[in-house]
Amino acid sequence: MPGITIGDTIPDLQVETNQGKINLHQFCADGWTILFSHPGDFTPVCTTELGKMAQYAKEFYQRGVKLLGLSCDDVQSHNEWIKDIEAYTPGAKVNYPIIADPKREIIKQLNMVDPDEKDSVGNLPSRALHIVSPDLKIKLSFLYPATTGRNMDEVLRVIESLQKASKFKVATPANWKPGDPVVISPGVTNEQAKEMFPKGFETVDLPSKKEYLRLTKV
Ligand code: BEZ
């Protein structure tokens, strides 16, 4: 699908939310932001997802990450829907803003349109999720269909990975979890790695004898 993707700067839109007007660049500039869309208010999977996001919010805020939801209904509908979300997920408080996009204009600009889901107004949003870094660039995107709810543990895991990679010259291997070793980026020489990673690193012995898989802890 054409539209903004990783590496792109998010558009500087003025959006209406249930907490008032937000300027996207201003909102996203002072930390990391998870911008996540939903097909619609008062729909079952979305109700579970927004509740789970609220349950995980503390974990995100502790890592300097703000949440910003989007659903294509209006502000009044969002405020009514929040009562259901909080009732369904015990302890959840939806303190993060939810963008209202009843005309389906914002979802086009944010590349969040589901080509297969339509109602009488037009195409619905997919379950898209962009992670925006403080320099306003999209660093990671998920794109799920309406029928698949997202896993907030995975969202938290990728935030940890992105933040490690932004701080150190490392990457996280398959099935990595916080606390596991990370790999040193290929562009770093062994000499540089000795200085960069005071805890040392282990080079995996591979049949090729190319020393490219180096593990360390940060
Ligand atoms: C849901 O949130 O459950 C949903 C929304 C639109 C289509 C299918 C499922």
TrEMBL record:
* SUPFAM superfamilies to which the protein is assigned, alphabetical: Thioredoxin-like
InterPro entries from the xrefs?
A: AhpC/TSA, Peroxiredoxin_AhpC-typ, Peroxiredoxin_C, PRX_1cys, Thioredoxin-like_sf, Thioredoxin_domain
Q: Where is the signal peptide?
A: none
Q: What Gene Ontology terms for biological process does this UniProt record contain?
A: cell redox homeostasis
Q: Which reaction does it catalyse?
A: a hydroperoxide + [thioredoxin]-dithiol = an alcohol + [thioredoxin]-disulfide + H2O
Q: Which CDD domains match?
A: PRX_1cys
Keyword annotations from UniProtKB, A to Z: Antioxidant, Oxidoreductase, Peroxidase, Redox-active center
| Claim: Oxidoreductase is one of the keywords in the record | yes
Pfam families with a match to the protein in the record: 1-cysPrx_C (PF10417), AhpC-TSA (PF00578)
Which residue spans traverse the membrane? none
The UniProt family comment states: Belongs to the peroxiredoxin family. Prx6 subfamily.
Kindly provide the name given to this protein in its UniProt entry.
Peroxiredoxin
Species name? Glycine soja (Wild soybean)
The root-end lineage is: Eukaryota, Viridiplantae, Streptophyta, Embryophyta, Tracheophyta
